[in-house]
Design brief:
By secondary structure, the protein is an alpha/beta fold. Helices cover about 40% and strands about 25% of the residues. Strands 5, 6, 7, 8, 9, 10, 11, 12 and 13 form a 9-stranded parallel beta sheet that branches. Helix 5 runs parallel beside helix 6, helix 12 packs across helix 15 and helix 13 crosses helix 15. The structure holds guanine and zinc ion.
Length: about 425
């Protein structure tokens, strides 16, 4: 394959920015380029320096004046909930029982799972999300449909067959043995195939018996390198119900700790109402609190204490995510706009450099995948996006008065959505252009 030179303004983070003036936290090239070949970034930097490295027959694509960033990473969403988005409910448990569980029952049908998988990956590409961490449904067929489509699209995806054996409709229940056997089968069939990663996925403590939690623990012991994903401390009624189901546990976090499910590959969705003790446990185990702003507002779950978690002596690792379909947008830009407002309501600041760090390198680090995604570093996957801050009449008008990188990022975050994504490159291939 011949190499391709992609020209544009490039931005890639090196670490979490300490503040708006922290220019060492990122590399920004006003006239930058990427040299890509065989799905990887071979070189990045100023256009002149990268061009000098490009030997022989190369294709050149010019995206100026747009901004090139690593592809967005979404660390928590539910593939079977595309048709649940915007369901009118008072709170989490009502929303789950009334809309979400019935909808997920439909994923027993392979044809339905395959149809939704096609739409799912289209939306990821349309919104500039090149890696997502997804819950499938309890049915193995849903995981098969998801991973088959991810393989066809050559996208780096993390996903799991949900384990759940109580407190849900019959059509959505497995057993501890089935959950173990089918998760193993999904691992054997899909993990490491193409760019697929399988995650061990007990839905949450309410829908797993102690026996099923032990099955999840056995899987984690057998496959310690795999990601683990579940939900934690999203809603007060959920917390009370969990504690009543596991009276021996000190608190909700302790339920997962007792089954050995916490650790540096563990992603815990929401984490809104944690006690200091629970935050300490999260910190000590290196577990990740996944912030899902549009979902937390939509379901009225509460305000995520982002600054408290990252700023305390025993800091908690965090990530950001859409949580489709409790979340209301596929866009990581819309997601970080709501994250910003959630901090505003707590008299905290989230600056635009931090936001873009979280959507890219921050989330890659949370997944321990920063050697592959989340940056424009040579040797990493050529998953990147092209952003146009002036994609609509209203943003174009505002863009006239934007004159710094931080202001540009803030405009993209505040008013941007899929229309701001001019192109999405997946393993070096322009994938958004190819959408129907
Ligand atoms: N807790 C358990 N399942 C879910 C889910 O599907 N969405 C949300 N937001 N929280 C959950
Ligand atoms: Zn969720």
């Amino acid at each position: 394959m011949t190499a391709t030179l992609i020209r544009g303004r490039t931005l890639s983070f090196k670490r979490a920015p300490a503040g708006l003036e922290d220019k060492h936290a990122y590399a920004y090239e006003p006239d930058g380029a990427l040299l890509i070949e065989d799905g990887l970034i071979l070189a990045s930097g100023s256009y002149d320096a990268v061009k000098a490295k490009a030997a022989g027959d190369i294709t050149e694509i010019d995206h100026r004046p747009h901004l090139i960033l690593p592809g967005f990473i979404d660390t928590h969403l539910h593939f079977p909930q595309m048709q649940v988005i915007g369901s009118y409910a008072a709170n989490l448990l009502e929303w789950l029982n009334t809309y979400t569980f019935p909808e997920e029952c439909r994923f027993v049908e392979t044809a339905h799972a395959e149809r939704i998988a096609t739409h799912f990956f289209d939306e990821m590409v349309r919104h500039g999300t090149t890696t997502a961490v997804a819950y499938c449904s309890v049915h193995k067929t849903s995981a098969d449909a998801f991973f088959a489509e991810a393989l066809r699209r050559n996208m780096r995806m993390v996903a799991g067959k949900v384990m759940m054996d109580r407190n849900a409709p019959q059509g959505l229940l497995d057993t501890p043995e089935m959950a173990y056997d089918e998760t193993r089968a999904v691992i054997d069939q899909w993990h490491g195939k193409g760019r697929n990663h399988v995650a061990i996925t007990p839905r949450f403590a309410i829908t797993s018996t102690p026996e099923q939690m032990s099955a999840a623990q056995a899987l984690v012991r057998e496959f310690p390198d795999l990601h683990v994903q579940t939900h934690l401390s999203e809603n007060r009624d959920e917390i009370d119900f969990t504690c009543s189901l596991y009276p021996e546990a000190a608190d909700y976090t302790d339920v997962y700790a007792r089954y050995g499910l916490l650790g540096p590959k563990t992603l815990l969705g929401h984490c809104i109402h944690l006690s200091e003790r629970e935050m300490d446990v999260m910190s000590e185990t290196g577990s990740i609190a996944v912030h899902c702003p549009t979902s937390n507002l939509f379901l009225g779950s509460g305000l995520f204490p982002l600054k408290k978690l990252v700023g305390r002596d025993k800091a908690v690792r965090i990530a950001v995510a859409t949580d489709i379909g409790g979340g209301s947008s596929y866009s990581m830009l819309r997601t970080m706009d709501e994250a910003y407002k959630i901090q505003q309501l707590q008299a905290e600041r989230l600056n635009p450099l931090e936001s873009f760090y979280y959507m890219t390198l921050g989330n890659a680090r949370a997944l321990s995948l920063d050697n592959k995604i989340g940056t424009l570093e040579p040797g990493t996957d050529a998953d990147f996006i092209v952003l146009n801050m002036a994609a609509t009449p209203a943003t174009a008008l505002k863009a006239e008065v934007v004159n710094s990188l931080a202001d540009e990022l803030f405009l993209l975050q505040t008013m941007g959505d899929d229309r701001a994504i001019a192109e999405t490159y997946v393993a070096g291939v322009a994938a958004k252009t190819g959408l129907a």
